[in-house]
Structures are given as structure tokens and as C-alpha cells.
């Protein structure tokens, strides 16, 4: 027979994998909270009501004892002694029971001579009188008047059992400030067991009906509340699925200002970022294809001309082919360098760097190269140091050289190029300004985009691919700084770099 245990284990794993939805969890949470609230409230009400009932019964018991005491004092005042009351048991019962109506059998049982207070078994109904007596049943009755005992001023019993006095509470009886006797009350319930049981049963039934009604009401409220509260989550889930399927135009509704509303805003911000990245990736692929198409087309035309014999493989033709190959090589190098300078794409070896010395050395090494192009390169640092920052010196040097190469490629001969270093409280500022020509306002925010060219023609005198400023932005971002472009005070382009300095 095949072994069924693997199937059983599979079923158990499937059962464990079943998870309740957020709506179901929220409904159960609200319902459980309502159950706990109802149960706790019912328990507190039950305890408080029983406590109040007990206090009320004790107050009534004290009032009843006080009334009996007043009648006994009045009787003693008329008789001047307890002797007549002791000899007339009917009068004693009337004083205790306030002429209450009692069943005939109980009146006869109380009127018969015997110990006071009578035992509980003595007061059983005649129908049960034939039942055998059990040991330990000899106890006083439970009604308050039948638990009272009377003693004179000297403590001698008038209607009392001396063996029960140790467990009784005593209440003095005084006439004109003189003690004439005392009442002794045997312990017992303020309310009879039968009455208390009936009362508890009625209260329990009522509380059960009320609790059931409250739970049904809580369930009716919790179900639509759970649906209402999970509706934004469902909308967020639909939006996330559309984004996962590539629909970057999907947006989550922002109807609330709570955590779900802020989550919807964050999800929409993510969708905007994904949409921009997709558009940028498409432009990036199109721009790379355009950059590669031109030199490849020239190479193909020259090689076909050589094959057809239109051109000869002389030095000039080979030089043109070499230029096209070199242009392709520079483009590939720039693309590789751009990918390597992305934050997180390579390890930046950070250490304390003196930015003033670094800029001075770079300016001194490039001054002759700028002079050959008719440009005046200068460097100045404002204020006093220190100029320390936590950075990778090789990447900082690459950053500055890219900016200088950009100025060298686009600044007219005879114009100045200036590098200035200054600082604020927390930032080190590098400004690179060059002379004419300048750029229109709409071009400034786009300078750091990949393959963006600021001039109308896509051909460059330097043969660049438009990646130098994009590489510069990657390096600045990796150092926790910021780079921006503006109109230069010299008439050309101004680049400002803000880098976090080291406090000393």
C-alpha cells in the first residue's frame, strides 16, 4: 500500500500556509475586543451589584435590629423588668416578628417551649419532619428575627443559648443612659439562599440576553468597519500589482491623512520614480544608439568605399578610420566610467582630504594645457581653513577634471576660467566659472542628464559623448554632496559643488 504520510504532511503544510486576510483579522480583532469589553463589563456589573445588594441588606438588617431594640426598650420601660417577657414567649415572638404573618405550622413550632433560637431542623415543614436527622444540622434558623438572642444587663440569658454567644454580635440596649440588656445576633446571610439564588438566576438571564445582544451589535458594526478600514489597503494592493506588471501610470487614491494615506503618497512617489526611470532608460537607450550610429555609419561608409575602390587605403583615409574608432572607444570608456561612478557601484575609499591642496595641485597641472587653448585658468580660496572633508581623492580629482574639460571644450579663446573654494558652517563650496558662450535658462537643469548636449549641434569639438557632467553628479552624490548649474558671473557657465566638511 502507498504511504499516506507524505500526503498528510503536505495537507498539514497547506493548512498552516492558509492565512486570514487583513479584513478577517481586523473583524476578529474588533469582535474580540467587543467580547472582552462585554465580558469585563458584565463581570464588573455583577460584582458591583452583589456588593451593593449586600450593603443594602446590611443596612436594612441594622435598621430592623434597631426597630426591634426600640420595641424591647419600650416593653422594658413599661414592665420595669424582663421577667414578664421571659414568661410570655408569644410576646417575645411578636416583638421580634413585628406581628408578621407566619404559617400556622411555623407559629405552633415557635410557640412550643424549647431552646431559643430554635434549630433549623426544628422549623422544617411537617412533610419533611419524618426525615432522619443528620449530624451537624443542629444550627440556628437563617431569618434575622429568629437569629436574635436577648440577655439582661448582667449577661444572663433571657432568650439565648449560651453555647452560641461566642459567635454572636452584640448590640447594647440602654434606657436613659443605663444599660438594661443586650441583643446578640448569630451569623447568617442577610438574604436567604433561595431568594439570593432566584435573584442571581434572574440577573444572570438578563445579563446573558444583554451580552448576546451587545455581541451581535458589535459583530454588525465590526463587519462593515473592517471592510471600510481595509478598503484603502485593497486599493494599495491593486496599485502595487499594476506597478509590478509594468503599469507605471497607476496611482493609489489619497483619501485619508493617516498612515494609510501617507503610505499611498509614498507608493505614488515610487510610481513617479519608476515612471521617470523608465522614460530615462528609454531616452538613455535611444541616445546611446544615436551616439553609436554616427561613428559606425562613418566606418561603414569608409570601409565600403575602400572595398569599391572609390577611396584608397592611404594615410588620410586610415586617419579618418582611426578617428572614428577612437570616438567609439571614448564613448565606451565614458559609458563604463559612468556605470562605475554610480553610488554603490564601486568602493569609494574615503579618508580625510585637504581640498585646498587638491584644487591647487590640479589647477597647477592643467594651467599650461588651458594656456595652449588661449584660456586663463586660476584658483583662489576664500576665508581661512581648515578645508578637510571625508572623501576619495582620486574621485574628487576626476570630478574637477571633468568640469575643467567641459570648460576647456566650450569656452571661447581668450576667456577666463576660475576655480574658487569657500565654506559655510558645515559645507565646503567649489565654484567653477568660465567665460562665454553661455547657455539658455531651460538648459541649466538638464546639464547633468546622461548624453545631454547643451549646444544645438550634437557634434563636439572635443569628441565627447555628453557624459562628463553626469559622471560628476554621480561622484558628488556618492560623497553626500550636491551639484548645480547656473549662469556664470564671467558670462558662461557656473558649476557649484557643495560637500560636507569635517569639524575640527
Note the topology:
Layout: H1 5-17, H2 22-79, H3 83-87, H4 89-97, H5 104-111, E1 148-152, E2 157-159, E3 169-175, E4 178-185, H6 193-244, H7 259-308, H8 315-340, E5 351-354, H9 355-372, E6 376-381, E7 388-391, H10 393-410, E8 416-423, E9 427-434, H11 468-478, E10 482-487, E11 493-500
Parallel strand pairs: 6-8
Antiparallel strand pairs: 1-2, 1-4, 3-4, 5-7, 8-9, 9-11, 10-11
- Give, in order, the helices and strands: HHHHHEEEEHHHEHEEHEEHEE
How are the strands ordered across the major sheet? 6-8-9-11-10
SS strand fraction = 5-15%
Question: What's the number of domains?
Answer: 3
Flag low-confidence runs.
14-18, 128-138, 456-463
Q: Give the overall shape, derived from the CA principal axes.
A: rod-shaped
Structural class label? alpha+beta
For the termini, the CA-CA separation is 81 Å
Radius of gyration: 52 Å
How many helix segments?
11
Q: Give the number of DSSP strands.
A: 11
The helix content, as a percent range, equals 40-55%
Summarize the biggest pleated sheet.
Answer: 5 strands, mixed
What integer is the average pLDDT?
77
What does this structure look like?
The protein has three domains: 19-125 and 139-246, no CATH class; 259-340, Orthogonal Bundle (Helix Hairpins), CATH 1.10.287.130; 351-500, 2-Layer Sandwich (Heat Shock Protein 90), CATH 3.30.565. Mean pLDDT is 77; it is low at 14-18, 128-138 and 456-463. The strands form three sheets. It has a five-stranded mixed beta sheet with strand order 6-8-9-11-10. It is rod-shaped. A hairpin with a 4-residue loop joins strand 1 and strand 2 (157-159). The chain is of the alpha+beta class and 504 residues long. 53% of the residues lie in helices and 13% in strands. The chain is built from eleven helices and eleven strands.
Amino acid at each position: 500500500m502507498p504511504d499516506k504520510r507524505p500526503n498528510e504532511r503536505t495537507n498539514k503544510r497547506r493548512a498552516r500556509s492558509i492565512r486570514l486576510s487583513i479584513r478577517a483579522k481586523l473583524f476578529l480583532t474588533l469582535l474580540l475586543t467587543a467580547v472582552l469589553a462585554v465580558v469585563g463589563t458584565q463581570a464588573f456589573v455583577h460584582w458591583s451589584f452583589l456588593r451593593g445588594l449586600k450593603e443594602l441588606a446590611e443596612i436594612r438588617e441594622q435598621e430592623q435590629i434597631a426597630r426591634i431594640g426600640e420595641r424591647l426598650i419600650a416593653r422594658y420601660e413599661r414592665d420595669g423588668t424582663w421577667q414578664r417577657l421571659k414568661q410570655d414567649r408569644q410576646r417575645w415572638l411578636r416583638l421580634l416578628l413585628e406581628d408578621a404573618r407566619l404559617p400556622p405550622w411555623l407559629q405552633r413550632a415557635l410557640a412550643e417551649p424549647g431552646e431559643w433560637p430554635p434549630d433549623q431542623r426544628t422549623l422544617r415543614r411537617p412533610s419533611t419532619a419524618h426525615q432522619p436527622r443528620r449530624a451537624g444540622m443542629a444550627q440556628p434558623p437563617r431569618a434575622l428575627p429568629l437569629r436574635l438572642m436577648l440577655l439582661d444587663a448582667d449577661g444572663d440569658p433571657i432568650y439565648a443559648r449560651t453555647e452560641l454567644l461566642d459567635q454572636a454580635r452584640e448590640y447594647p440596649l440602654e434606657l436613659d443612659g443605663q444599660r438594661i440588656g443586650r441583643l446578640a445576633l448569630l451569623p447568617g446571610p442577610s438574604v436567604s439562599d433561595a431568594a439570593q439564588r432566584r435573584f442571581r438566576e434572574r440577573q444572570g438571564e438578563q445579563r446573558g440576553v444583554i451580552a448576546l445582544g451587545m455581541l451581535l451589535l458589535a459583530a454588525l458594526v465590526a463587519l462593515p468597519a473592517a471592510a471600510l478600514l481595509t478598503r484603502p489597503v485593497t486599493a494599495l494592493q491593486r496599485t502595487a500589482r499594476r506597478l509590478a506588471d509594468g503599469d507605471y501610470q497607476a496611482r493609489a487614491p489619497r483619501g485619508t491623512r493617516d498612515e494609510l494615506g501617507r503610505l499611498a503618497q509614498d507608493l505614488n512617489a515610487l510610481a513617479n520614480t519608476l515612471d521617470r526611470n523608465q522614460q530615462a532608460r528609454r531616452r538613455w537607450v535611444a541616445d546611446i544608439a544615436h551616439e553609436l550610429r554616427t561613428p559606425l555609419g562613418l566606418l561603414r561608409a569608409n570601409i565600403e568605399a575602400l572595398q569599391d575602390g572609390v577611396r584608397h587605403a592611404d594615410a588620410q583615409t586610415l586617419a579618418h578610420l582611426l578617428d572614428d574608432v577612437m570616438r567609439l572607444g571614448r564613448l565606451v570608456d565614458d559609458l563604463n566610467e559612468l556605470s562605475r561612478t554610480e553610488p554603490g557601484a564601486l568602493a569609494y575609499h574615503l579618508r580625510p582630504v585637504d581640498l585646498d591642496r587638491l584644487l591647487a595641485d590640479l589647477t597647477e597641472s592643467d594651467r599650461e594645457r588651458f594656456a595652449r587653448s588661449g584660456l586663463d585658468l586660476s584658483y583662489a580660496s576664500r576665508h581661512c581653513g581648515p578645508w578637510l572633508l571625508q572623501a576619495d581623492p582620486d574621485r574628487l580629482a576626476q570630478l574637477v577634471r571633468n568640469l575643467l574639460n567641459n570648460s576647456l571644450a566650450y569656452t571661447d579663446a581668450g576667456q577666463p576660467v576660475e576655480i574658487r573654494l569657500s565654506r559655510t558652517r558645515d559645507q565646503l563650496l567649489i565654484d567653477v566659472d568660465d567665460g562665454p558662450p553661455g547657455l539658455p535658462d531651460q538648459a541649466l537643469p538638464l546639464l547633468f542628464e546622461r548624453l545631454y548636449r547643451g549646444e544645438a549641434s550634437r557634434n563636439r569639438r572635443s569628441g565627447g559623448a555628453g557624459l562628463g557632467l553626469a559622471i560628476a553628479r554621480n561622484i558628488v552624490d556618492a560623497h553626500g554632496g550636491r551639484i548645480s548649474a547656473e549662469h556664470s558671473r564671467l558670462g558662461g557657465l557656473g558649476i557649484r559643488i557643495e560637500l560636507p566638511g569635517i569639524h575640527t
